[in-house]
Amino acid sequence: MSRQAFLLISTATISGIVGLARGDEILAQASLQLATASNTIVAAIDRVLGEGGCTLDDVGGIVVVKGPGTFTGSRVGTCIAKAIAYAAPCSLASVTTLEAVAWTGFLSSTADIAGRPVWALLDARRHEFYVQEFAVRDGAVMPQASAVCMGQGAFDTVREVGGLAACAFSPAVVPESQRPHGGENVVWSFDVHPSCAGILASSVGARSENPFTLEPLYLRSTEELFDHSKAAL
Questions:
Q1: Is residue 54 included in any domain, yes or no?
Q2: Which domain holds residue 184?
Q3: Using an 8 Å Cβ cutoff, are 113 and 133 in contact?
Q4: What is the DSSP string of 136-188?
Q5: What's the CATH number where 137 sits?
Q6: Tens digits of residue pLDDT in 127-139
């Protein structure tokens, strides 16, 4: 195999994934759980390389989901990606969790959302949510606005505009007063975590990264992440 294979890494959410792709074909993939991602990601990468019939020498590039997400998860994925990109060596590109979630929701949805936006929502803990609006143009999901961290008003914002809401959390995370109900102009899709297809699609035109300088994306400052007790997180 030539060096046209791409390694895909996402550990920023509770349901992570690593995969191997060539062109637009996913050759192999393996799921990761947040609680054990730091201990299992290297073995998972080795497994998908084996299933894809190649070694690190065949990997021409890495696409990593750099965050936002959990503090530890975001760091694990970016650190592993940086180390491999430096050692291989190969190219390194990053996408945000919200970009990968938006693409994953769009690709997996069967709803008719022609002319309507795609929203990506991520649990930011402490009763807050990361939210970003995307537009669909010529079959591509493009950022329409910058990602923000909001309280329960995030759901009102989505309802005011309508469209497809790809949520990287279960319905149980939604405050009771904000849970979906009949007659809405929003197609709610829950438990949408970055998939290999979503990561690959969102990487088209993605920013090229230097393995020495790439840092996880938190949106919140470190002080904001840790100014409450662990119980509150």
A1: yes
A2: 98-189
A3: no
A4: EETTEEEE-S--EEESTHHHHHHHHH-EEEEESS-GGGS-GGG---TT-SEEE
A5: 3.30.420.40
A6: 899 999 999 999 8
User: Would you list the DSSP string of 32-66?
Assistant: EEGGGHHHHHHHHHHHHHHHTT--GGGEEEEEEE-
Q: Is 8 exposed, middle or buried (0-12, 13-18, 19+ CB in 10 A)?
A: buried
Residue 195 falls inside a structural domain: no
- The string of pLDDT tens digits covering residues 156-200 is 999 999 999 999 999 999 999 999 988 889 999 999 999 999 999
Sign of CA dihedral 107, 108, 112, 116: negative
- Predicted TM-score (pTM) of the model is 0.92
Considering the domain architecture, whether residues 131 and 181 belong to the same structural domain is answered as: yes
Residue 230, both tokens: 């662990």
Sequence-distant (≥ 6) Cβ neighbours of residue 177 within 8 angstroms? 152
Angstrom distance (rounded) from CA 50 to CA 27: 10
- On the CB side of 55, how many CA atoms lie within 13 Å of its CA? 4
Same domain, residue pair 81 and 152: no
